[in-house]
Fold this sequence. Notes:
By secondary structure, this protein is mainly alpha-helical. It has six helices and no strands. It has helices spanning 16-23, 28-33, 53-58, 74-89, 92-105, 114-122.
Amino acid sequence: MQSGTTGINTLRIYNPVKQSQDQDPHGRFIRCWVPELARVPDAFIHAPWKMTPTEQEACGLRIGRDYPPPLVDHLAAAREARRRLGAVRSQGPARAESHAIFRKHGSRRRGPRLDTRREQHRGPDPLS
Length: 128
């Protein structure tokens, strides 16, 4: 997993629900530290606000009363953040800084292009 950025890598905006699903599929950490969600089924532990009212009632939880609804729509917020960051990164000062960082820290290997390397390892494409 990457954290931060050096100016030469793609800036990553992680989805907290997906990270939770990947790192804690059964929600053990969530159940331990958020007791309100202890009885929520695995299928909803990472996004309990997606349960229907009937499903909420079955596990003794009501979104908005016992547990808050999402504060932001993460997908929409991430989309807007990418748009805004892209606009800043494409402007002169940020672009110049990115090039300076790459010159200092980027790969110094100046090997052949990827398609040339592929031919060296596999030989020419017989279908071409």
